[in-house]
Amino acid sequence: MLINSFLFLKKYFSYNISFDCLKLKSLKFIISFVVVSTYFSPVYAKDIYVATNGSDNSSGTIKNPFATLLRAQMEARKYPNEKLNILVRQGVYYLDKTLVFTEKDSRKKEKELTIVPYKNEIVTIKGSRKIPLHWTRVKELFNAKFTNSNLIFDQMFVNGELMQMARYPNYQKGKLPFGGAGADAISAARVKKWNNPRGGYLHAMQASMWGGFSFLITSKKGDSELNLEGGWQNNRPSTIHQQYRFVENIYEELDTLNEWYFDKHLQMLYLKTNQDLSKALIEVPQLETLIEIKGTENNPVKNLVIKGLIFSHTLRTFMKNREPLLRSDWTIYRKGALTIEGAENLKIENCVFSEMGANAIVYSNYNRNNLLSGSHIFNCGSNAIVFVGDPHAVRSPSFQYNDFVAFDKIDKKVGPIGKNFPAACTVYDNLIHDIGQVEKQTAGVQISMSQDIKISHNTIYDVPRAGININEGTWGGHVIAFNDVFNTVLETGDHGAFNSWGRDRFWHPKRDLMDTLVAKHPELIFLDAVKPTLLFNNRFRCDNGWDIDLDDGSSNYIIKNNVCLNGGLKLREGFNRIVENNIILNNSFHPHVWFKNSTDVFKHNILGAVYFPIRVNDWGKDVDSNFFNDEISLQNVKVFGVDQNSLAGDALYMDVQNGDYRLKKSSKAFDIGFKNFEMEFGVVSANLKSKSKKVTLPKLLPLIWKEDATYDFLGVTVKNLTTLAERSATGMAGETGVLVLQIKENSLLMPALKPNDVIIEMSGYLINNIKDLISARLNSQSKKTTLLKVFRDQKENDITVNLK
After folding, report:
1. Helical segments of 77-124, H only
2. Could you give the 3-state DSSP secondary structure of residue 215?
3. Consecutive H or E run containing 519
4. Do 735 and 754 meet the contact criterion of CB atoms below 8 Å apart?
5. What stretch of H or E contains 27?
6. Shortest CA distance to 624 belongs to which of 613, 612, 585, 640?
7. Letter string b/e over residues 476-486, b meaning 16 or more CB atoms within 10 A of that residue's CB
8. Which of 553, 485, 544 is nearest to 518 (CA)?
9. Helix orientation angle between 27-40 and 2-13, rounded to the nearest 10 degrees
10. How far is 491 from 466, CA to CA, in rounded Å?
11. For residue 383, which of 184, 407, 628, 732 sits 20 to 30 Å off, Cα-Cα?
């Protein structure tokens, strides 16, 4: 490299440079030039080619490419000291087995190995197998005899379209949960119709809607019951939901188009369709993992780049999802389309992950300085991205909600044991949506037993539960910034667009014992959450829970410069949460069961409603200098003994229609210390921006509720009951309550409510006017149903209504 630099000098100056001349010239300048040019000289890469029409017996050149990535990988191992590109020509590559990279593939940073399409050609890696079949047709039901008994029939794609296993109720796209559910899915009457349901599955929501369960049907019990195995997919055991359930892989339920059933005993495949199957491409996934990075802390796989590839068709793994995480609602299965364990400086860039049966990408145990960027992840059965460390790195771990290690047995050292967990990894500029299509306790990004994970500029939407979830406090330091997260908690409940738990060493399921413990031993509080987790400059929207939900014990958070569009911000018991300079539209602050001396701070925020505290007697270190939508809300908050220096009024947003919630210069909110911040959220690359759905911006609640005006409430036209005539028509004793005028056919409250009803109570809150009704609704944000008390037919009636 040094000689090359001198040759460069010779060519550049067009005259010979002798070593004698170097003595006479500015030696300092020449040496500096040589050093700089040496540092920035291009490192030339060796190229290895792969093509669908290649041969693994060839040389791997562009004219004689290899046929498989495995062969290219073996060739690359011959050149550990050269920068290498594996250039993949366009086409679909079906893997016979998982492609595994080990420490043998590890390289120095400047000698990285890159797997990338040749000249941006479209390259797809699939874990499925094409199966040629000879079909027999009877009307719309096709059948084909199959002879390869080794094939797994878990999913089937016809011409790229996912077919549904024969199921009840039939699949309806967009219907939540599960694409359709029925209380009678395993009723005695239905089970009687099934000759041999063995091998079928029951899927159901958890009773409290905290995720889902799945069961394998092992046999019939008598004539009308089932023997089931499973139900371990949720770490908060309960009965299954009585309404939200469905069954699949049962022959007698093969009754609608695009359903299929495989009879394993007869080796017969049945498909109900009106498509022409004579030339159809039939693909059946066979692999859980397409690429596995398999190193260790002592021998990691280093400096591998995977770029521009499309990954598709992996098996569902819901029956393997049974490893409990630390006292959260979660279980996990540590496999994904890309399974990464023991990696450093691994880059996954500009890839596509779609039609995955389970997780897309799993970072398990030791991972350092890895980057996932510019990628599109959608149509996945489980999580998009998982970071999960080794439980053996956790001091005094507990796994079930009700478990607890006694104080005298707790390991009281700070932080983790060893380094066998993900840390210092980045997820940047990724588009994630339509995940959790099979499993419901899932997230766009799930973090557990990890540290210093940075999640920034991602767009996440259309998910059954959280967009981003932090499982516990071990070990903090995460940065969640500039993300756009919306359409979340679509199929579950009691959760948030951002959700966290903190059931760490100090936490106890019995609150009185925990209060005593932390008061006597406050040193326990930050043994696990050793670094603060930062949430800043994000935009969240959750219509079925909270925008930001810090649940049980979540501690050591700094939450700043976020926009909450609908669900508000909840802080359940925890310590040292600093919440400053956030905008909470159409909702407010939900403090729940705070500790004494929590040191929590809530300042300089803009709020759309009154606070909604639950069992809060001690209001932390400082709750003040906030800005409220109206004076009544502010005065109601001051009753709690907080916000004595707060103000109320019109915040004067710059451009509500286009989501610019920065304040105009004349806003009084600046007087309480609020500062404008950047309003750029989500993905940054033009390609992903063009593909991304846009968040629905809310219509802001009015600053002043007009006494006689009509308003919409969940599809019901309502007004304050204010006149003698309205009293007479309804039979009310006074001019109070909210009068129902009209109900839209698609309203959630149809047919429970009727015109001329008067709503006088909701969720235990007295309703004197529409503002009370809206406040009660905001405080019921996470509920699936609630109780309304209405005055009808000269008497009070209790009515349970749906809120989702």
Report:
1. none
2. strand
3. helix 511-520
4. no
5. helix 27-40
6. 640
7. bbbbbbbbbbb
8. 553
9. 110
10. 10
11. 184
> What's 695's DSSP letter?
P
Q: Cα separation of 536 and 24, whole Å?
A: 58
Amino acid at 403: D
Three-state secondary-structure class, residue 244: strand
Q: Which of 477, 482, 576 is nearest to 522 (CA)?
A: 576
- Mean pLDDT in residue range 509-531: 97
Q: Return d(Cα 49, Cα 128) in angstroms, integer.
A: 23
Q: Pairing mode, if any, of strands 716-720 and 622-624?
A: unpaired
Closest CA to 133 of 263, 274, 265, 284: 284
Q: Are 128 and 285 in contact (CB under 8 A)?
A: yes
Strands 259-263 and 161-165, how do they pair?
A: parallel
The encoded tokens of residue 287 equal 């692999």
Write the CA distances from 56 to 48, 65, 84, 98, 490, integer angstroms. 12, 8, 18, 17, 48
Which residues sit opposite 101 in a β-bridge? Answer: 293
Structure tokens at 197: 């349901």
| DSSP category for residue 343 | E
Average pLDDT over residues 163-167: 98
Nearest partner of 248 among 175, 188, 194, judged by Cα:
194
The helix/strand/coil state of 153 is coil
**Using an 8 Å Cβ cutoff, are 707 and 740 in contact?**
no
Cα dihedral across residues 495, 496, 497, 498: positive or negative: negative
Give the whole-angstrom CA distance, residue 566 versus residue 738: 23
Query: How far is it, in rounded angstroms, from Cα 185 to Cα 212?
Result: 15
Question: What pairs with residue 769 in β-bridges?
Answer: none
**Cα 268 → chain centroid:** 38
Quick one: tokens of 123? Answer: 């390259």
Instruction: Give this prediction's pTM.
Output: 0.91
Helix (H, G, I), strand (E, B) or coil at 227: strand
Residue 696 CB coordination number (10 Å): 12
R_g over Cα of the chain: 30
CA distance 480 to 496: 15
Structure confidence by residue, pLDDT tens digits, 634-659: 999 999 999 999 999 999 999 999 99
Q: 616: Cβ–Cβ under 8 A, 6 or more apart, which residues? A: 591, 592, 593, 594, 640
Identify whether the C-beta of residue 360 lies closer than 8 Å to the C-beta of residue 380. yes
Distance CA 482, CA 382 (A): 24
Strand runs labelled E in 561-704: 563-564, 569-571, 577-580, 583-584, 589-591, 601-603, 606-607, 622-624, 627-628, 647-648, 653-655, 660-663
Q: Among 676, 652, 632, 655, which residue's Cα sits nearest to residue 771?
A: 632
Size of the chain, expressed as the number of residues it contains = 804
Residue 104 backbone dihedrals phi, psi, to 5 degrees = -65, -20
> What sign does the CA torsion over 158, 162, 167, 172 have?
negative
The confidence score (pLDDT) of residue 139 equals: 87
* pLDDT beyond 90 at 102: yes
Q: Cα(89)–Cα(654) distance, rounded to whole angstroms?
A: 50
Which pLDDT value is given to residue 13? Answer: 38
Helix (H, G, I), strand (E, B) or coil at 341: strand
What is the signed CA dihedral for 636, 638, 644, 650, rounded to 10 degrees? -10
The answer to whether 283 touches 156, Cβ cutoff 8 Å, is yes
How confident is the prediction for the chain on average, in pLDDT?
A: 93
Joined together, the tokens standing for residue 484 give: 């756009």
Separation of alpha carbons 232 and 638, rounded Å: 46
β-bridge partners, 686: none
CA distances from 786 to 156, 651, 694, 747, 750 (A): 41, 32, 30, 15, 14
Cα angle value 583/587/592 (rounded, 5°): 100
Burial (CB count <10 Å: 0-12, 13-18, 19+), residue 600: buried
Q: What angle do CA 467, 469, 472 make, to 5 degrees?
A: 175
- Per-residue confidence band for 784, with pLDDT thresholds at 50, 70 and 90: confident
